[in-house]
Amino acid sequence: MTPYKLPVIFCLCGCLVQVHPFGWSDLDPIKHIKSTGWYHNIQNLMRATFRDKHQIPKGKGSYSVGCTDLMSDFTVKGSLLRLYYPSQDGEYHSTVWIPNKEYFVGLSNFLGLHKFMGKFLAYYFGSVTTPANWNAPLRTGEKYPLIIFSHGLGAFRTIYSAIGIELASHGFIVAAVEHRDESASATFYFENEAAVERDNKSWLPYKCLHLQKTEYPKRHRQVLQRAEECSKALNLILDINEGKTVKNVLNSTFDLEQLKNAIDNKKIAVMGHSFGGATVIQTLSEDKRFRGSVHQNFPDFTFVTGKVIGYIFTLKGDIDSDVAIDLSNKASLAFLQKHLDLQRNFNQWDHLIEGEDTNLIRDNKC
Questions:
Q1: Which of 96, 122, 242, 300 counts the most CB atoms within 10 A of its CB?
Q2: Domain residue spans in the chain?
Q3: Tell me, what's the pLDDT at 277?
Q4: Cα distance between residue 253 and residue 255, in whole Å
Q5: Neighbouring C-alpha atoms within 13 Å toward the C-beta of 342
Q6: Could you give the angle at the alpha carbon of 2 between the alpha carbons of 351 and 218, nearest 5°?
Q7: Of 169, 156, 184, nearest to 299 (Cα)?
Q8: Sheet of 129-134: strands edge to edge?
Q9: Displacement of CA 166 from its chain's centroid (Å)
Q10: Whether the Cβ atoms of residue 146 and residue 175 lie closer than 8 Å to each other
Q11: How many whole angstroms separate alpha carbon 326 and alpha carbon 328?
Q12: Predicted local confidence at residue 260, as pLDDT
């Protein structure tokens, strides 16, 4: 995920951190802010922004969408995934968008902001949900194509939900990998089984690279590890599909046995955004089970910030965010149908692959 100035959104509060107007060296800055007019001004601005259209979009396909998290092996060598899948209709439980405050702190670290900004992000966005039914039962009775998704630099498994939900609503199972190569804003594992029982997470933060001489070899090692993690995620899902017993370390109520014989193992793809796109290329060169790749363009922050903040910090382009993600998702579906030989109606969007739309500029060099 390129920086995008993404929650630089909150630089309007970052100025508070730079000026230090409250003398909070030994006190809680949140309490100081709440005791001043600044807090109420910021809160009013956020409320005004949230009245604007800012929700993560629902899937436009015919399937209801469920969501769950899966961790196999509690160590740092295990897989941590967020799954989006076609679900049964029934009682609805919203999915928390970003489930731990450490991810918000990691985002502020990735963007080079004061750690206070992580608390600010968590305070305002900790209750945001995505339009997926948490731990809903899988819609059984058919086999689904599988997509392994690799996040961008400084991102993590949950902030591409607009893409995962859209694809799942069209009948895909999407496994969004959280990478443990120090390129995620944050990720976690457990030191031992006792830590699992106590839910005592060990956090692995994003590692900043400053010197150009050391950046390339480190990024190269990260891409190699990321490709391995994508293949490992595929192995995990296919093992479950074959009926092998896999324990979810996270003690989810989602029964993994529902996924037995639910995957069409001849229709598997890997997708990624930004640094995840490089991961896709490396994965394709190493693992012949994947057929084709798509590089998506928009993380979820473009939807949750509203027009005011999005305009100020260029989180949104001239084209509406919903139009942009819709074009990207439809082009992705058309691409997947073409290269996975799907018998769907996604070929109705083949023209988008060729750049033919009023909102697209055709690349005549291709």
A1: 300
A2: 54-307
A3: 78
A4: 6
A5: 27
A6: 120
A7: 156
A8: 94-96, 129-134, 64-72, 79-87, 173-177, 144-150, 263-272, 293-295
A9: 13
A10: yes
A11: 5
A12: 97
Short-list 288, 256, 252, 291, CA closest to 147: 291
Name 174's bridge partners. Answer: 84, 147
pLDDT in tens, 222-269: 999 999 999 999 999 999 999 999 999 998 999 999 999 999 998 999
Among candidate residues 202, 164, 162, 208, the one with its CA nearest the CA of residue 185: 208
What is the average pLDDT score of the chain?
Answer: 80
Q: What does the alpha-carbon distance between residue 353 and residue 335 come to, in Å, rounded to a whole number?
A: 7
Smallest CA-to-CA distance from 306 within 316, 294, 317, 295 is with 316
CA neighbours closer than 13 Å in the CB half-sphere of residue 106: 22
| CA-to-CA separations, 252 to 134, 141, 159, 234, in angstroms, rounded | 10, 22, 20, 20
The pLDDT tens digits of the residues spanning 271-288 come to 998 888 788 778 878 888
Q: Of 239, 237, 83, whose CA–CA distance to 174 is shortest?
A: 83
How far apart are the C-alpha atoms of 330 and 349, rounded to whole Å? 6
